[in-house]
Write a structure and sequence with these properties.
40% helix; two-stranded parallel ribbon; three-stranded mixed sheet; 24% strand; 7 strands
Length: 140
């Protein structure tokens, strides 16, 4: 999983390893959605941000946020994003970006440092831990 943004003219990249398919029953769509939510929660923690525009190459994730409808597995994720945005007065929008235009996030998600260095030599890269849902409650 990977996301990035510009903050105070610094390019910041965040990445997190996805469990191997053998270690989880969740589809890749779950992790794409979790990455979007992690970026929204990160923006909330900054507390100086009041509007966030998130791009993802996954149209299912975009559709979920536009309709506010999701399957049972994704409802807790969607509710978490909505609850946090309401409580923090953050407005966000999730939009589609074609995969071939999503190079930086793709390189971050693959831990491809050579490609990141080529695309954005000044990027600072950090690891992140996505929020965890346990029995319907979130742990941050």
């Amino acid at each position: 999983m990977g996301y990035w943004f510009c903050c105070d003219s610094r390019l910041l990249g965040y990445q997190c390893a996805v469990p191997r398919p053998d270690d989880t029953e969740k589809p890749i769509f779950y992790y794409k959605t979790l990455t979007v939510i992690s970026s929204i929660l990160h923006a909330i923690k900054l507390s100086t941000v009041h509007r966030v525009f998130v791009f993802t190459d996954n149209t299912n994730t975009v559709d979920m946020f536009h309709t506010l409808k999701a399957r049972q597995l994704y409802n807790p994720l969607l509710l978490m994003a909505i609850n946090h945005s309401i409580c923090s007065n953050l407005q966000f929008c999730v939009a589609h970006i074609p995969g071939d235009e999503n190079d930086i996030a793709d390189a971050l998600s693959w831990f491809d440092y050579a490609r990141i260095l080529q695309l954005v030599p000044s990027m600072e890269i950090y690891n992140f831990t996505p929020p965890q849902l346990v029995l319907g409650a979130e742990l941050l």
